[in-house]
Amino acid sequence: MKEQLNKIKNNILAELERTETLQQLEDLHKKYFSRKSGDFSRLIRDVKNVSQEMKPAVGRLINDVKKEVEESFDNIKKSLNNKMAGTGESNFFDLTLPGVDQNIGTLHPITQVKNDLDDAFKFLGFEIYEGPEITSEGYEFDNLNFPLNHPVRESMDTYWIKQQTTKKGMEKFCLRPHLTGASVRYMQTHKPPFRFVYPGRAFRSEATDAGHERCFYQYEALIVNERISVAGGKILVKTILERVFGREVRIRMRTGFFPFVEPGFEIDMECLNCLGKGCSVCKHKGWVEMMPGGPPHPNVLRAGGLDPKKWQGFYINIGLDRLVMMKYGIDDIRLMHSGDLRFLRQF
Ligand SMILES: [Zn+2]
Prior knowledge:
InterPro entries: aa-tRNA-synth_II (IPR006195), aa-tRNA-synth_II/BPL/LPL (IPR045864), Phe-tRNA_ligase_II_N (IPR004188), Phenylalanyl-tRNA_Synthase (IPR002319), tRNA-bd_arm (IPR010978). 39% of the residues lie in helices and 19% in strands. It is of the alpha+beta class. The chain has two domains: 2-87, no CATH class; 109-344, Bira Bifunctional Protein, Domain 2 (BirA Bifunctional Protein, domain 2), CATH 3.30.930. A hairpin with a 2-residue loop joins β3 and β4. α1 runs parallel beside α4 and α5 packs across α10. The structure holds zinc ion (ZN). The site of zinc ion has 7 residues, from loops. Zinc ion is lined by residues 271, 273-274, 278-279, 281-282.
């Protein structure tokens, strides 16, 4: 019985392939499914000869095959109708046929929040700039006031690629471990005052877990003018976060050490999940670390060709992945780069 069913199914599918008109399709359907003389109908009638215990299994099999074949008939009918409507061979166009479903993708949550940040900064007059992902020790560490013995220079954190002799002598190249190097490139090639952002990927040789990835997204901003106060920087951060989260947020700044800023700040946002009461998202502190920031260190301004006595500034270094996780309540950073459609379809 099973063999017979398979054979008849293959015959039907093969004949369907050759069908070119709706009339042929109708004839084919009659040939197999007409109540009296259809080959398939006859097979169904034969079920009564099957032994009692085999009947349920055979019945299921017949139903499965019938469903598959009927679907093929429907598909061929749809495509024949569309073809005829398209070529003008027929003036018949069946408006009652359901449309063909298109799978429409959505933007990755990181891209969505990056676009939100772009909009928020553009609204405040910032330019969007892009630096290279492969860069040099000079740009990533020397220019940014990292001491020669700073541990992130070691291979355990930074992906070093090669050494090469350039105009500056022997240079070490790496995948950028942060974006900040791009800010000096911008300063060297533009005239102050300026305000700009430079989003992108950064790379670090780290053990991955729910909070760490080897490749992650950052979003940095630098504003340089003759006079910028730390309070001005704080208002900037608050304005940007409120645009991204679409609600009022509270922020606080604590002192923190980062070689490229002086003084350096850790900028926290009041946990949006518990509104400061304490929950698992904020580890019961009521505040979530959002980003470091602060005025550029005089050595960094000098590396960018600016006189630190004349120019001041404010850096914001946003961990984009973390911001996205906070916005959507995602608890594992690795999901973002997994390409798992079950995850991505939620956005
Ligand atoms: Zn909380």
